[in-house]
Amino acid sequence: MQSSEDSQLLNGKGKKHIVEVRAMELDDVHKVFHLGEKLFTANSVPNLYRTWDEFEVVNLYQTDTDTCLVAEVDEELAGFALGTVIEKNRSSWTYGYLVWLGVEPKFQRFGVAARLFRRFHELMLEKGARIIMVDTEMDNIPALRFFRKMGFNNAQEHVFLTMNVDDARRRYERKHPKEP
Ligand SMILES: CC(C)(COP(=O)(O)OP(=O)(O)OC[C@H]1O[C@@H](n2cnc3c(N)ncnc32)[C@H](O)[C@@H]1OP(=O)(O)O)[C@@H](O)C(=O)NCCC(=O)NCCS
Known about the structure:
The chain is of the alpha+beta class. It has one domain (about 5-175): Aminopeptidase (3-Layer(aba) Sandwich), CATH 3.40.630. The protein contains five helices and six strands, in the order E-E-H-H-E-E-E-H-E-H-H. It has helices at about 30-40, 55-65, 110-125, 140-150, 165-175; strands at about 5-10, 15-25, 70-75, 75-85, 95-105, 130-135. The chain has a six-stranded mixed beta sheet with strand order 1-2-3-4-5-6. Strand 4 and strand 5 (about 95-105) form a beta hairpin. The longest helix has 15 residues, at about 110-125. The termini are far apart. The structure holds coenzyme A. Coenzyme A binds next to strand 5, helix 3 and helix 4.
């Protein structure tokens, strides 16, 4: 079922714009991908272990259609919230995971992400989630402030380590040449 939340926001010049939050559709996929490319650059999220690429968007859209949302301002893509529901084996707990959240820079600080999150939160309640998870870089202050404002707490430090296995891979490939 498609659900949408219409509301208004004001821009700096006092002009009113309509913001609509709705389920993501096939036609949105490429726009969401391009907006994400702008937001999740190597500079702004240098260590992000989840990589933003076409497959990420297409896969989430395919597997989690009803938990992928977009926001439009005057019919222009203004933001997205892509999430999933996780049900753990041997546990009665259902978790909501907001995997990607992004707002077009010119529409930031107008409450677009807050609207997207409110709808996502509602969807998670409908799906029986008991906890909603998000994660972001430790120095992503806008995102951290945003998530705190939405009610997230209990931030847990999580150290992400990487190992460069390039040399080891070359040695391995010399030892185990691929069949022509
Ligand atoms: C984080 C992000 C989604 C927020 O979107 P947004 O639409 O601008 O957020 P909102 O306007 O709904 O902000 C709600 C509140 O969050 C906080 N907040 C949002 N952006 C902030 C910023 N740049 N600095 C400080 N606080 C901020 C404020 O408390 C704000 O309320 P206020 O404007 O009344 O002070 C947006 O900055 C973004 O797309 N960032 C790049 C992508 C990213 O890092 N995504 C999160 C990890 S996946």
